[in-house]
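agent> Task received from the user: take the single chain below, predict its 3D structure, and emit structure tokens. No templates, no multimer pairing.
agent> Plan: (1) validate residues, (2) run structure prediction, (3) serialize to tokens, (4) report one or two observations.
agent> Step 1 OK, no nonstandard residues flagged.
tool_call: predict_structure(input=
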Amino acid sequence: MRTGDLLPPLRVPITRTLIVAGAIASRDYQDVHHDAEAAKEKGSPDIFMNILTTNGLVGRYLTDYFGPDAVLRKVAIRLGAPNYPGDEMVLTGEVTDVAGEAADGSGTAVTVAVRGRNGIGHHVTGAATVLVGDSGRRSREDGDRRSRDGDSSRDSGPSRDGDSSRDGGPFRNGGAA
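)
tool_result: status=success, residues=177
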């Protein structure tokens, strides 16, 4: 791995299902991500992808390339042209920095400039730092040990409103988020 190395492109078909499923999975119930009429009333030609789905696709792109031991340390992205149904986003990346092996043996930090382009222009631009090496394996082993010990805290985290996902999620108390 060297500065200047290019990652192979990842082509992502932008479907209605991907847009809506990504919004639901990330608990983003804004109507512009699932209701075409509401999106049009607000000036958009159609529903469009949310930033959390884009962030997940960027993460997938990097971990697919660097392998199962890769750990995302930092992802900083910015959105540009919206991803609409029927388009395709092509993710590309270039290694911009490779830090040496960490003293604790946790792996090598690799920084990648990431871009995602669709038919309108750049949908996403940014950079991510990925820890490559033994760190991912240790992280998975720690998670497996916590699961065996009955600690499921790794599986739950804060929801969009800051409450724990253990409290019933967005439909607690019978109402929508």
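agent> Step 4: summary for the user.
The CA atoms of residues 45 and 118 lie 16 Å apart.
agent> Done.
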